[in-house]
Amino acid sequence: MGYPYPSHPKETPVLSKHFGEVEARTFDGWVARGGYEALKKALAMTPEEIVAEVKASGLRGRGGAGFPTGMKWSFMPKDDGKPHYLCCNADESEPGTFKDREIIRWTPHALIEGCAIGCLGIRAETCYIYIRGEFTEPWHILVAAVAEAYAKGALGENAFGSGRRIDIVVHRGAGAYICGEETALMNSIEGRRGNPRVKPPFPAVAGLFGMPTTINNVETLAAVPVILTRGSAWYAGLSLSSPKSTGSKLFSVCGHVQRPGTYEITMGLPMRELIYDMCGGMLPGRTLKAVIPGGSSVPIMNAADIEDCPMDYEGIVAHGSMLGSGGMIVMDDTTDMVYQVMRLARFYADESCAQCTNCREGTAWTTKILERILAGEGKPTDLDLLLSLADNMTGKTICVLSDSCAVPVVSGLQKFRGEFEAYLSGATAPVTAGV
Amino acid sequence: MSSHAETVHDPVFVGDTLAKLEALYPKYPTKMALLLPALWMVQEARGWVSEGGVIEVGEKLGLTPAYVRGVVSFYTMYHTHPVGRHFIQVCTTSPCNICGAEDVVKSLLRHTGCGELGATSPDGRFTVVEVECLGACGFATPILVDDDTVESVTPENVPTILARYP
Amino acid sequence: MTVEMVSVTIDGVTVQVPKGSNVIEAAERAGVVVPHYCYHPSLPSPAVCRMCLVEVEKAPKLLPACVTQVTEGQVVHVHSEKAIKARAGVLEFLLINHPLDCPICDQSGECELQDFQFQEGQQKTRFTDFAKRYNPVEDFGHDILYVPNRCILCTRCVRFMGSVAEEPVLEVYERGDRAYIGLDQSQRLDHEWAGNVVDLCPVGSLLSKDFLHKARVWDLDKAASICPGCTQGCNMTIDTRDEVVVRLRPRPNLEVNRHFICDTGRADYRWMNRGDRVEAPLVLDSDRIRATDWDLALDRLAVLAAEAGPVVVLAGGRASCESLGWTMRLVAGRSVVAAMQVPQGEEVPLAAVPNLALRADRAANLHGARLLGYRADWSSAMGEVAAASLVIVLDAELTDADAALVAAAPQVIQLATVTDPRLHDAQLVLPITSMAEEQGVYVNRDLRAQRYLPARSAPGMARPAWWVASQGWALGAEGRSAPATAAEAFAALDAFDGLSYRDLGLTGRVLATATAGVAS
User: Residue A365: which residues within 8 A CB-CB, separation 6 or more?
Assistant: First the structure.
């Protein structure tokens, strides 16, 4: 549902069905809504059967990369004698994204159940849920829900009397965007600086504490119980477009729309419908100028780009951007694009872990140039310089934070170059009318 | 490159806090993994992470002070100097920015008496800082007052919100 | 055990390298230098500087050569246009906050940032009109200064202290472009091996206070040497400026000391520059000491040696195999007790490197001495002094008690770098070179025989002790001819498996006696 607004007819509420229902946060309330049936079912299944079911559903990682979940699980070794770990990435920090927050706040047991099933699928006994430090309220709710799940026997050394051990530990971050990167997250759990690690080795070989590890996003894991109860075929059938983009997906929409919120739609819904019908369109008297459809790390789209763009992995790529995390930022004609690109660059400069030269220096330098342009002190060569730096920051570092900083710069310049040039030619106020 | 002085460090990990830390040991295969939780406990007890706290955590977990300090300084939420009684974090990243977050910041600075970001109000009541994305972009502008998320803050409703934090 | 080899082609040169090698190592085999900063062969690779990006065929992106393992048939282009452009970009980023204070920077001339910038960088910066990052210089304690403005965050120092010394007192503090290397205010960088971070630092960010502003490195003369401080036998370089030793640095030897030396060894060079040296042979004539020439001194030496009854030889721990061996030959046939002085200290290992420590036995050539018939039991040798007709002191540093015993001996010969006023009755004081002024061989605790080369010229008439002893020996009988060179002096000794200087090279050879299990 379009929390905090009532469900819209065009939504497909699966994960968000119980958003806003306080009782759903409790164990009993969750059971009353059909909860924990999936976990009981999974406890009677082999890991292979669980993985096969998830594979068949077509579920793809909801954190941003869109990697097929079942395939990821199948990379985990069998009979290697080592402890395996599941990490749940609840470090939702991508600007524009706030869908996982709602899952944790309203349906924590859906996540707990998904984590438990994930453990069974990858032969792990322990799942660490890494939740960002700023999520204070979701953290309190999740910790309480986990304690209740233990008290009710769903977790612990004998989950639902199955003789199987499943532990869930909630680990709180402390303020670092980069900890949403999977290997940085593992370092952070281990008590280190949140520096991304060089790959290989990949987590399935040597991840958390050096052991085989799978890491999944909150929304991904929360979708697993419903796949088990309603069947992979049902889930895979939820698609309006590409057979490669299945299921329902939460989109958190923010910015200049009438009803910002978290909307759950079937993959393939036209972007226009999401913005103009479900979110109520733009604020009165304003027109749409730009959309960042998948969190701040994906290319900025302009009004023309979104016209016939379907909301699925392939469709958004075909229209010049990416589905990413599903965090959609909508900007209207009052937006100063140069300023917003600077804000995004500054965000990445603040969050760079400092390991790779290109990122550490490049994000800060890029920000300085954009600030100079905004201050009316830009140089004629600055736009070319920005693009050149963006090139030096793309595809050259351990993780993609540096690339992510380059994305809004390059796409911003591509789509809204006129606004940059206006600043260079001495405009004192932002030119916000568009290209 | 400096940190604030602390007269004498009174150990944090005694009694209940020590028990709370020790209860975490079985949940992780290494002691080092308790670093973030331990630092949170120090901050909860003292309001900030002092040099004494860094050394104490290091001793508890078998880590050097430099190592602990390196970790502390990586994460923005650990305070390395004392802050006001109520710590206010305002999101000013793009989604909130385009919805007027910077005016919220101005209003907060004015009504708390902090004057500038990072400073503590003369009465010691508030410290206001700008943070990057709080993950509540649909509710612009969200702020965190201590552990409470307050959504849809506007320059106008700032005084009402502040009144709840004496 | 055979090592599996793979064939890779780097900049058109095909080489065979062991499986598991990284591309930097493979390129080295192919004679290609891949520019790098964070990579160091004795440290774990974090792949953070991004300077070693190279193009690997079939890989979609440029890859860091330091962590990319070679695969069979791999084709690598270190100097493709794409790779060079990427590295130029990294150099530009590294330089935006790096001060251009090379004229006052000690690293200048041996700075890897200078080198690679000269090689591959752009001439002009595009980082104009912005202030550079500024942080004040910090005293890290002991011998080390940190100049954060020059730091390129390669983290070699952090990894050395953490992964090699296993005392993680350095850490990256803060993040983004605010990051710097931090040392906690409650700590100092005073680990016995900490000085290595100065050598590891590719730029002038970590500096030795001892060497600070002493010399421009291009004015230095460098000599391959062996640390005389203990039985480890770390390979080192002696740097001199105008005949004055100004710095000791580790010289890589993967089997002895990798790339490291301890701070005790590093700091122990001031004696090499002592000004109060014996510069001419001194003879005692009717209670008067007078300087003389070598002809007369050597005649005296030959006579004293020939006429001697029981002999005691007291050698200092820095005496070369050549000197020890020829001194023994000089008095061969007599009843001889010979000992080497071995000061004792605490053993301080470098945690993560097997078989590397500052050793408790603080005498470089103890094991060479043993092979040549010297004992380590100093006090038992001192016990023989009273019964000796001749005592030869080979640059040993005597205690007052020892000196009193020696002074009471009928005949005393000093082969010395400096005079010992307590032995004013010595019949002969012969000026010898210090190890910094001669060639020689030391045998370390693993019975590795290693050569050291002269770093400065000998003062006055000083000669290597082996030359002095062998000349005296040659005069002792008809038909003897003394070795003309150090190489000959070494080759003539029996204890070394017939090895020559050439065989030893500059990284030494383990003696067969060691492999046969004779050594203890």
Answer: A389, C93, C96, C127, C130
Contacts of C184 in chain B (CB under 8 A): 54, 64-66, 68-69
**Min Cα separation C437/chain B (Å):** 43
Q: Which residues of A touch C127 (CB under 8 A)?
A: 365
Distance, in Å, from the CA atom of A336 to the CA atom of C354, rounded to the nearest integer, reads 61
* Sign of the alpha-carbon dihedral angle for C242, C247, C250, C252: negative
**Model confidence pLDDT, tens digit, residues B28-47:** 999 999 999 999 999 999 99
With b meaning 16 or more CB within 10 Å and e meaning fewer, what string describes A235-248? bbebbbbeeebbbb
Q: Give A257's strand partners.
A: A282
Separation of CA C422 from chain center: 33
DSSP assignment of A233-285 equals HHHHH-BSS-TTS-SEEEEEEEESBSS-EEEEEEBT-BHHIIIIIIS--BPTT
**Residue whose token pair is 């969190």:** A295
In which element (H, E) is residue C239 found?
strand C235-241
> What φ, ψ does residue C454 adopt, rounded to 5°?
-70, 140
A317 vs C313: CA distance, rounded Å: 86
Q: DSSP secondary-structure letter at A72?
A: H
| Element spanning C222, H or E | strand C221-226
Q: Which of A83, A95, A134 has the CB atom closest to B95's CB atom?
A: A95
Does A175 sit within 8 Å of B75, measured CB to CB?
yes
B114 and A CB contact within 8 Å: no
- Give CA–CA dist C360/C345, Å, rounded: 5
C490-to-C225, C368, C467, C473 alpha-carbon distances in Å? 17, 12, 11, 15
Closest residue, chain A, to B151 (C-alpha): A4
Q: Alpha-carbon distance C133 to C213, whole Å?
A: 24
Distance from CA of A34 to the nearest CA of B (A): 29
Would residue A123 be called left, alpha or beta, if left means φ above 0 and alpha means ψ between -120 and 50 degrees? Answer: left
Chain A: closest CA distance from residue B5 (Å): 23
In this prediction the pTM is 0.95
Substitution target in C175, C180, C181, C203 with the highest count of A β-carbons within 10 Å is C175
pLDDT tens digits, A70-116: 999 999 999 999 999 999 999 999 999 999 999 999 999 999 999 99
Rounded to whole angstroms, how far apart are CA atoms A115 and A99? 17
- CA A314 – CA C127 distance, rounded (Å): 39
Q: How confident is the model at residue C153 (pLDDT cuts 50, 70, 90)?
A: very high
Q: A341: which residues sit within 8 A by CB, 6+ positions away?
A: A370, A408, A409, A412
Q: Which residue carries 């971050």 as its tokens?
A: A173
Please tell me the distance in Å from C37's CA to the nearest CA on chain A. 11
Closest CA to A171 of A184, A188, A154, A156: A188
Alpha carbon C114 to chain centroid, angstroms: 25
Please answer whether residues B3 and B36 qualify as being in contact, where contact means their C-beta atoms are separated by less than 8 angstroms.
no
Given its phi and psi angles, is residue C20 left (phi above 0), alpha (psi -120 to 50 degrees) or beta?
left
- Give the integer Cα–Cα distance in Å for A129 and A224: 16
The count of other CB atoms within 10 Å of the CB of residue C161 is 25
CB-count burial class (<10 Å; 0-12, 13-18, 19+) for B35 = buried
In tens, the pLDDT along C214-267 reads: 999 999 999 999 999 999 999 999 999 999 999 999 999 999 999 999 999 999
ipTM, 2 decimals? 0.95
Tell me if chain A has a CB within 8 Å of the CB of B132.
yes
Per DSSP, the three-state class of A7 is coil
Provide the angle, in degrees to the nearest 10, between the axes of the packed helices B35-46 and B65-74: 80
